[in-house]
């Protein structure tokens, strides 16, 4: 695995990963920016072996994926084989499916029960399983948030976190506090900034171009044992490859590699 800790979350460029030719060109572009590590997410139909060949050809490695939840419940052996082929240790789910959310605390606990089982099976094969948050998980239920309940109900050995800095902030929570809570339970973090556009609109921004406390965030990540900092920007102001480049250069200037 590369020594680089900055990764490109390819969901950022999802409009350019719909075909094998798109994927090949995208790998070339992110490699040219300087990335050596990627997160695979939102690809169109493509053979896993072809992905591996393309990764190797560009000198890239895959540090983590986002896998559809139905594949995790219905096709886990194939998911495991795919990750072994890609030499990718970390598996993540991008969100909690709607029916669990709609059922409140009972739904969260049911999801946590299933996540523990998925994570246990992955753990037995040497892989990890992480949950990626948005902001809805910070809805309060009594004196706790859904996020609190989810991580209290899951076993740290089997369910880890893939915190998203923007969405934690968007949910009204403290990014650094949550990084501290997930110490030794978060191999990958999603890094994206939050800016305010006039008159009072929250927008996603390239890392270092918004208002988040990056010195504090990166120091907390170091203490928490984060392995990879995956740059993700769901909505970009222009060319998403330009956004990936700005975040990459800013993170390098902050001391990451």
* Total strands: 12
Structural class: alpha/beta
Shape: globular
Report the order of strands and helices.
EHEHEHHEHHEEEHEHHEEEHEH
Tally of distinct domains = 1
Name the beta content range: 15-25%
The average pLDDT value, as a whole number, equals: 97
Quick one: CATH class? Answer: Alpha Beta
Report, as a whole number of angstroms, the end-to-end distance: 14 Å
Estimate percent helicity.
40-55%
- How large is the radius of gyration? 17 Å
Separate helix tally: 11
Gross CATH architecture: Alpha-Beta Barrel
What is the fold named in CATH at topology level? TIM Barrel
Strand arrangement within the widest β-sheet reads 8-5-4-3-2-1-12-9
What would you say this structure looks like, in words?
By secondary structure, the protein is α/β, with parallel strands linked by helices. The chain has one domain: Divalent-metal-dependent TIM barrel enzymes (TIM Barrel, Alpha-Beta Barrel), CATH 3.20.20. The protein has 11 helices and 12 strands. It has an 8-stranded parallel β-sheet with strand order 8-5-4-3-2-1-12-9. Strands 6-7 form a two-stranded antiparallel sheet. A two-stranded antiparallel ribbon has the order 10-11. The protein is globular, with a radius of gyration of 17 Å.
Write the layout of secondary structure elements.
Layout: E1 6-9, H1 20-33, E2 37-40, H2 48-58, E3 61-66, H3 69-74, H4 76-86, E4 90-93, H5 98-102, H6 104-124, E5 128-132, E6 140-141, E7 144-145, H7 146-153, E8 160-162, H8 165-170, H9 175-181, E9 188-191, E10 193-197, E11 201-205, H10 214-224, E12 228-231, H11 240-253
Parallel strand pairs: 1-2, 1-12, 2-3, 3-4, 4-5, 5-8, 9-12
Antiparallel strand pairs: 6-7, 10-11
Helix pairs in contact: 1-2, 6-7, 9-10
């Amino acid at each position: 695995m590369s020594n680089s800790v900055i990764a490109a979350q390819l969901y950022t460029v999802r409009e350019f990963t719909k075909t094998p030719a798109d994927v090949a060109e995208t790998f070339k572009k992110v490699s040219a920016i300087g990335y050596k590590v990627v997160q695979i997410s939102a690809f169109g139909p493509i053979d896993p072996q072809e992905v591996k060949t393309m990764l190797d050809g560009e000198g890239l490695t895959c540090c983590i994926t986002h896998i559809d939840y139905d594949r995790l419940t219905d096709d886990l052996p194939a998911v495991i084989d795919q990750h072994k082929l890609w030499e990718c240790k970390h598996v993540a789910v991008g969100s909690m499916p709607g029916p669990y959310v709609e059922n409140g605390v009972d739904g969260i606990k049911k999801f946590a029960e299933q996540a523990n089982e998925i994570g246990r099976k992955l753990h037995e094969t040497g892989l990890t399983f992480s949950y990626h948050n948005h902001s809805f998980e910070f809805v309060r239920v009594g004196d706790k948030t859904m996020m609190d309940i989810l991580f209290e109900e899951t076993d740290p050995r089997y369910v880890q976190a893939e915190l998203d800095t923007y969405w934690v902030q968007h949910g009204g929570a403290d990014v650094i506090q949550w990084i501290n809570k997930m110490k030794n339970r978060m191999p990958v973090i999603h890094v994206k900034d939050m800016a305010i556009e006039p008159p009072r609109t929250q927008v996603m921004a390239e890392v270092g171009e918004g208002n988040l406390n990056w010195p504090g965030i990166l120091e907390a990540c170091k203490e928490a044992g984060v392995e990879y900092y995956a740059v993700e920007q769901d909505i970009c102001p222009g060319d998403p490859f330009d956004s990936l480049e700005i975040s990459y250069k800013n993170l390098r200037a902050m001391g990451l590699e």
